[in-house]
Automatic annotation (TrEMBL):
Top-level taxon: Eukaryota
Region span, Disordered: 887-936
SMART domains assigned to the protein according to its UniProt record, in alphabetical order: PBPe
Bias (Polar residues) ranges: 887-898
Protein's organism: Nicotiana tabacum
Protein name as catalogued: Glutamate receptor
An example Gene Ontology CC term for this record: plasma membrane
């Protein structure tokens, strides 16, 4: 006992203020948890050795901002506390943190969650709880998961309620969702005010409600919503952690009215330490508050426990000695607030708290940027008497069913298996679509053009008997399909646009400009997306083919042109083809000259053959046989090239002769051209330097055809410029008479126009993509335009000429094949006659001359010459023992002892010996050659005699 008293006398008491709403549940629970935290900490093995002890001084803020501020001033000025735990609400904290900064005293709140309170505003404010903005990504992930695009936000009208709005708005915009309506309810609203707001929400199309308010006010809202039938099938209610954290302490009747509600709250892992503390806390709290039955601990109590533990550790770590405040030098007129001093230990204590980390009851306790580090969030579903966990959300994985799962390569997953089974309002498992047709929703005024021509696109019919207007057409049907594809309902009505002084829409620019003036909410029709128009309206993605084309009558102007046959190919392709023909002819001649009699003869005959053979092969009219395998390989490749080239030439020539539609030189000949009345094409023609006097408008397809049929010289037009959808409509009926020629000029097609910044544009654009990629679009086109059966109507004369860029690959293949065959032949030839190149006693040019002369002679080793008499003679000589002439450098015969047939080298040598003066390719003989010739003649005679004797 004396040792314990001595130890108590040796500890340093540290005054700490506590400012709570003592009559509120959070205040009662928080104070109880703080007291148990200090008791547990200082009785532990670790805390018992501490020299400091926190001494609590509690003050009741009485749910009032002024009372909370007065309590804080009293604690700072009179008791000179080193830190303040509290206050309970964000509104109270907004004022107190200013006092803490002035006195350099840390203000630690475990329940002030408003994002407007920030450590950047005051470094001495420490949020030992989670910022409300940390849960908005969890909420937006839920919205994205189910594909809802609009929500209504119901929040309390104070700093706590408003703080989450900008963060939630930004998070929803990132997933292409938006807050359709904000319902602001005062903290102390009467029942009639709440009922009025709920009636307003029920009349809207949005059925997804996000509730962010205190537990007491939220309970009243859900009770009344159930009475009004707003907790039935089709509704979606999502509550933030302000209510989700306190579900276990709500009245059972309130829980009954919240069946099917989805909520998000910080995830607290279940541990043995937490279970033991919960049991001890219930017993202690019941003893201290016998009137409160079935009290349940929530996360705010755990944060209060961890906050007190962290403060006790930080005070010891900062070696706080309980130094007094430093008083400021003030005058006699000093106010009460100005008399507050500055804590000498404040800066050190602040740093110690920020650097304190440990494993607390709520999880890992760590202060990051002045607030508690955000853990994973748990998603709950109110079912029966409480809440059931249906999933989790983490920064790494997004929504997952189990925290043990790891993130995928694609990041956040939105798989339909990420949630457990959800019971929605109305006791159903069917996911609500999030919207209904509103009972009093305002209809969008959709402006449509009123015109007489091209009624297939937009047609306005007035029934004067019933005084009703019916709008039909291709554009209207597409718009209806697009609106049906939206994930929510949008009511609308069509309103024809008529100029004040006319009966029809004269200018589409004026129609689109009505959006900017606020006359319409959207414009639907054959309205082209144009840069000038996009400066004051927003367009959706186009739903038609884009471009402006020129249409002219089909005329054959080439029947009397003598040189039309050269037009199918460009001059580059003609020149390349000729060069390739000559090259292939030369290669074939080289490969066949020594082995084929058809490729021999006088020089002029052989040159003619080089040019003749590849051209005759083009029509398969060649008479010469091909005996060399290499030549056959080259010819097979060449036949492929010739076949493709001739086929392409014939197709292009046929097109040129039968459907050649020359684009008239409109500018040079000063021809008249046509354009659709009210279209932007008139401005396009002006940019192309067409004279305005030479432009003639038309309003209907029939009028356009009449102008084209008359021609420019007879009061009509030579060509018409219009957008491709209109052109297709004309050609679908008159494709045998008219066709598209020339280039297609850039435009962006038809689109739906909305006011600048309209939130509908992204959703409608996505719906346009969905409709245009479906079979429904094809059905609509067939219904209004019929079946488009014309083929090759868009061929232009400029595109009929085939260029080298279309065939250069074929020429490369042919040239490479021919070159490869030539290289193989030359390599083989040089290998057979390499002994000539090794004759060092002859000049180089003489060796080349001998090689050339040998190339010009027949190759008797070839199978084509095996049956000749000369071959037989050489065969006989091959068995004779004849001495070699001393003047023969080329080794005329093989070894006289051999009984083997002559080798190819012997044959080639023999062919050289048998080459007589006066033969083709020969040269005047020298003296040595004459001697050799005489010897050769004798040998030939002997060979003939021997052959005859046999």
């Amino acid at each position: 006992m004396e040792m314990a008293m001595a130890q108590n006398r040796s500890t340093i008491p540290i005054n700490v203020g506590v400012v709570f709403d003592m009559d509120a549940w959070v205040g009662k629970m928080g104070l109880s948890c703080i007291s148990m935290a200090l008791s547990d900490f200082y009785s532990s093995d670790h805390g018992s050795d501490y020299k400091t002890r926190l001494v609590l001084h509690t003050r009741d803020s009485k749910r009032d901002i002024v009372a909370a501020a007065a309590a804080a001033v009293d604690l700072l000025k009179d008791l000179e506390v080193k830190a303040i735990i509290g206050p309970t609400s964000s509104m109270q904290a907004d004022f107190i943190i200013g006092l803490g900064e002035k006195a350099q005293v840390p203000i630690i709140s475990f329940s002030a969650t408003s994002p407007s309170l920030s450590s950047f505003r005051s470094p001495y404010f420490i949020r030992a709880t989670l910022n409300d903005s940390s849960q908005v990504k969890t909420i937006s992930s839920i919205i994205q998961y189910f594909g809802w695009r609009e929500v209504a936000l119901i929040y309390i009208d104070n700093q706590f309620g408003e703080g989450i709005i900008p963060f939630l708005t930004d998070a929803l915009e990132k997933i292409n969702a938006r807050i359709h309506y904000r319902s602001v309810i005062p903290e102390f609203a009467i029942d009639d005010r709440i009922t009025s707001e709920l009636h307003k929400l029920r009349s809207m199309q949005t059925r997804v409600f996000i509730v962010h308010m205190t537990t007491s006010l939220g309970a009243k809202i859900f009770t009344m919503a159930k009475e009004l039938g707003m907790m039935s099938e089709g509704y979606v209610w999502i509550i933030t952690d302000a209510m989700a954290n306190e579900l276990n302490s709500m009245d059972p009747s309130t829980i009954e009215s919240m069946q099917g509600v989805i909520g998000v709250k910080p995830y607290v892992p279940r541990t043995k330490q937490l279970e033991d503390f919960t049991t001890r806390w219930k017993l202690k709290f019941q003893q201290e508050n016998p009137t409160i039955l079935n009290a349940e601990l929530n996360v705010f109590g755990l944060w209060a426990y961890d906050s007190a533990t962290a403060l006790a550790m930080a005070v010891e770590k900062s070696r706080n000695a309980g130094a007094s405040f430093q008083k400021l030098h003030t005058s006699g007129n000093t106010t009460y607030l100005e008399a507050i001093g500055v804590s000498k230990d404040g800066p050190k204590l602040l740093q110690a708290i920020l650097n304190t980390t440990f494993k607390g009851l709520s999880g890992d306790f760590q202060i990051v940027d002045g607030q508690l580090r955000s853990p994973a969030y748990q998603i709950i579903n109110v079912i029966g008497n409480g809440a059931k966990g249906i999933g989790f959300w983490t920064r790494e994985n997004g929504i997952i069913k189990d925290l043990s799962l790891r993130s995928t390569k694609n990041g956040h997953s939105i798989s339909k298996t990420n949630f457990g089974t959800i019971i929605w309002p109305g006791d159903t498992t069917s996911v609500p679509k999030g919207w209904v047709i509103p009972t009093n929703g305002k209809k969008l005024r959709i402006g449509v053009p009123l015109k007489h021509g091209f009624s297939q696109f937009v047609k306005v019919t007035r029934d004067f008997t019933t005084n009703t207007t019916t709008v039909t057409g291709y554009c209207i049907d597409v718009f209806k399909e697009v609106m049906d594809a939206l994930p929510y309902y949008v009511p609308y009505e069509f309103v024809p646009y008529v100029t004040p002084d006319g009966e029809t829409t004269e200018s589409y620019d004026d129609l689109v400009y009505q959006l900017f003036l606020g006359t319409f909410d959207a414009v639907v029709g054959d309205t082209t997306i144009f840069a000038n128009r996009s400066q004051y309206v927003d367009f959706t993605l186009p739903y038609t083919e884009s471009g402006v084309a020129m249409v002219v009558p089909i005329k054959d102007k080439n029947r009397n042109k003598a040189w039309v046959f050269v037009k199918p190919l460009t001059w580059e392709l003609w020149l390349t083809s000729f060069c390739c023909f000559v090259f292939i002819g030369f290669v074939i001649w080289v490969l066949e000259h020594r082995v084929n009699e058809d490729f021999r003869g006088p020089p002029w005959h052989q040159v003619r053959l080089i040019f003749w053979f590849p051209f005759s092969a083009m029509v398969f009219a060649q008479k010469e046989k091909i005996v060399s395998n290499l030549a056959r390989f080259v010819l097979i490749i060449w036949f492929l090239v010739v076949l493709i080239l001739t086929s392409s030439y014939m197709a292009s020539l046929t097109s040129t002769l039968t459907v050649e539609k020359l684009q008239p030189e409109l500018l040079k000949s000063n021809e008249y051209v046509g354009y659709q009345q009210g279209s932007f094409v008139a401005r396009l023609l002006a940019k192309m330097n067409f004279d305005e006097d030479r432009l003639r408008p038309y309003s209907t397809p029939q009028e356009c055809v009449d102008l084209l049929s008359r021609g420019s010289a007879n009061g009509g037009i030579a060509a018409v410029f219009d957008e491709i959808p209109y052109v297709k409509l004309i050609l679908a009926k008159y494709c045998s008479k008219y066709t598209i020629v020339g280039p297609t000029y850039k435009s962006d097609g038809f689109g739906f126009a909305f006011p600048m910044g309209s939130p509908l544009v992204p959703d409608v654009s996505r719906a346009v993509l969905s409709v245009t990629e479906s079979e429904k679009m094809v059905q609509i086109e067939k219904a209004w335009f019929g079946k488009y059966t014309c083929s090759n109507s868009s061929a232009s004369p400029s595109s009929n000429s085939l260029g080298l860029d279309s065939f250069w690959g074929l020429f490369v293949i042919a040239v490479v094949a021919a070159t490869l065959a030539l290289l193989i032949f030359l390599t083989t030839f040089m290998h057979e006659h390499w002994h000539i190149m090794r004759q060092s006693n002859l000049p180089f040019h003489e060796r080349i001359r001998i090689l050339a002369r040998n190339f010009d002679r027949k190759d008797y080793s070839s199978h084509t010459f095996k049956n000749s008499e000369l071959r037989d003679a050489v065969g006989v000589l091959g068995h004779m023992d004849c001495p070699q002439s001393p003047h023969d450098n080329l080794s005329m015969f093989a070894s006289p002892q051999t009984n083997e047939p002559p080798s190819p080298s012997i044959s080639s040598h023999t062919e050289q010996i048998f080459h007589l003066p006066g033969e083709e390719g020969g040269t005047p003989p020298s003296h040595e050659e004459n001697v050799a010739v005489s010897t050769q003649e004798s040998v030939i005679g002997l060979a003939i005699d021997l052959n005859a004797g046999r």
